[in-house]
Amino acid sequence: MEKEDKNYSIKVERHVWPDEIEKTRKKRNIIYIVVASVLVSFLLGWQFSNLTKGTGIISSPNTDVARFERVYNELLSNWYFANEMEDAPNELITNAIKGMLEMNGDIHTSYMTQEELAGFTTSINMDFVGIGVQYFPGDGANVITRVFKDSPAEKYGVEVGDVIYRVEGELLTGLTSDQIQSLIIGEEGTVVNIDFLRQEETVSLAIPRGAISAVVWGEMLDDDIAYLEISSFGQTLAASTQLYLDDFKAQGAKKLIIDMRDNGGGYLQAINDIAALFFENNDVVYQEEFKDGTNKVYNVTSSQKSNYDFEDMIVLVNENSASASEVLTMALRENLGTRVLGVNSYGKGTVQTQSVFGDQSSLKITIAKWMSPNGNNIHEVGIEPDIEVKLHDIFYSLYPTLEEGTVLQYDSVDESISYVQQGLNYLGLYTGRTDGYYDDATLAALRSFQNSDDITQTTIQNVYSAVVSDWSQNRATRDVQLIKAIEVLNDES
């Protein structure tokens, strides 16, 4: 299997896998951003091998390869626009490979350049060098919403609710998230001086930067229920999860909610490692079915489950829960009877392997289908939740993009109007129709939201930002899926 606010310390975004960018380039879903987007490709088996040295075409007697060579050489020699390429030989080959893969209908088989591979790996591991906090930059307040366990921030006493006020003596008023991030991150071991506002006091701390992994986060919700959010199946997942599970047990947690909404997957080894925390030795985690019809069964080979027994567990999934998150969800359901709550998951039931070439480009190719412990395959079907709970409609709406200069006015009809109507409804400003017709009720709601009757791209962006802000600040009352999971667990006490 091969997936901030998953953010690394300060962003409020999720990552979109390279093999999904083209498919989703016209889509923008709020839930990707605020439920903290990634997405739907993972490597079930991250295997590296240097198969080919260099980037040139290897001569072959095969007539199809020879045909390709003729076209390639003709383009390189005579194509006028080759002069506009920075590195024509390399770019022609890269484009040819990507075109060959994209035309075959498998969006999870893809070719990545060295730079794309580096970004892809970083996205899965969700690692960075910083202090280990997540914050929400609402109204410029920069309020810390999470402090990652075993991070420099935790060790130096940074608390949820603290406001990042100054970094190295520089006030953060008016700075963007990227500018703030550039002040906080740096080389491992170097010190960053930060002034925090804590209620009426200023707390000044000199914090050494450290390596941070943001793949998992958790907290106690009450005396009995713990919450564990798994964002990606990165290399450090099991070790990081253990820190939280140890803390939960020390605080007397009896029940656990595992949140894998918007988790698009990760490494095969991460699944095997984390499985050992929940399952007994020899329990089946998943199976693989290969092209030649053979099967391979993956069992837990060691177990620390006795340390992490919970009386009851619920897994949260949504339409972006894919691959590794679906594997673990099915294993928990079929091995432990864990219930699944949310909406139908993505449905990625294939397995990829990765080959890295001499120039550090890579080929990710589908080699198998995976199946659950009981032999169920969810490819293109997904996991149907035991308890279906949906968020507000705005979280399932695609972010619309108007053509430059387009202005939508009263009595017009457009899908962008529907988006604005749903957003205003979420914000409590509108209770009317959401079919995209700009009527009197829409006009009244829009006037209360902005100083204009027109709907432009700026209007759409402002509605989007307002929803993101509201969700981030009021998630405790807005996240009906998490609220329902708590309710179900408490009802069975």
Describe this structure in words.
The protein has 493 residues and is α+β, with helices and mostly antiparallel strands. 32% of the residues lie in helices and 20% in strands. The protein is built from 15 helices and 19 strands. The strands form five sheets. It has a six-stranded mixed beta sheet with strand order 10-11-12-15-16-19, with helices on both faces. Strands 1, 13, 14, 17 and 18 form a five-stranded antiparallel beta sheet that branches. Helix 11 (415-426) packs parallel to helix 13. The longest helix is centred in the last third of the chain and has 17 residues, at 457-473. The radius of gyration is 25 Å and the shape is globular. It starts with 17 loop residues before the first helix and ends with a helix. Residues 2-59 have low confidence and may be disordered.
Give the overall silhouette: globular
Briefly note the structural class of the backbone. Answer: alpha+beta
Q: Helicity, in percent?
A: 25-40%
Low-confidence stretches: 2-59
Cα radius of gyration in angstroms: 25 Å
Total strands: 19
